[in-house]
Every structure is written in C-alpha cells, then in structure tokens.
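To: structure desk
From: M.T.
Subject: fold request, one chain
Message: Could you run this one when you get a chance? Sequence is below, nothing fancy, just the single chain.
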Amino acid sequence: MGSAERISDEMKAAMKSGDKLSLSVLRMLKSDSKYKQIELGRELTEDDYKAVFSSAAKKRRDAIDGFEKGGRADLVAKEKAELEIINRYLPKQLSESELEKIIADAVAETKASTPNDIGLVMKNLMPKVKGLADGRKVNELVLKKLNG
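Reply: Done. Structure tokens follow.
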C-alpha cells in the first residue's frame, strides 16, 4: 500500500473513531502532498512522499523549539502529538550511535579535519541519511566530530 492510500485509509478510520487530531494531521499531510504534486507536475513517488513527511516533521520540531523557548507548554504538547502522528509515516530514525558511525565514515572519506570542512562532510553525508535523521542533529554531531 502506498502512502496516498495509507493516508486515505487512516483518514477514514480517524473520521469513524472521532479522532480529530489525527484527522487534522492526515488532512494536512494529504494537502501538502497535493501541493507537492502540483509543484512537480507529476504523480508523487514514495521518495517524494517521504520528503513531504520529513518537511512536516521538521516544521513541528522547529515549532516545538520555539514554543518551549516561549514557555507555551500547551502548544508544545499539541505539536508533539502532531509530530508523533507524522513520525508513523517516516522511516525509523537512526540512533545517535549509528549516526556517529556514518559521520565518522564521511569524515574519513572526505579527509576533513577542521570545522571549516563541514560543508564538504555534509555534502557527502546528507544523501546517506536523508529522511533517517534530523539535519540539525547531523550538523551538531559533525561539528562535534570536527572540533575533536
């Protein structure tokens, strides 16, 4: 079953069960997918759907950070609940130890040695971890590795 069918099926189930939060998030994902389809001018592939879901998850993580800084616990809880629903559509995220190993390999491949080489490492690394790790987290770990 593809992502589009899965969203539709889960929307129907959410409507029947009266789960307003899930229904709202699923409608948003369906809408974002439709916009992406219009933007690309073709049917979406599963990779395109993953990009849409990753983008939605990133928006939620950024909102959570902002609301935490602003002391808005009510909105943090709402965003976390939405993120949990979106995460069901994303591939399993890499653990920090798995990510550190991939980063170490990328640093070795690029022969990077200083924080100035971060662009080179990230260019090599991001295609390998796309959709499997948060870019901000990857950036943090790469800087940590390059700073020694």
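Reply (cont.): The chain has a mean pLDDT of 89. Let me know if you need anything else for the meeting.
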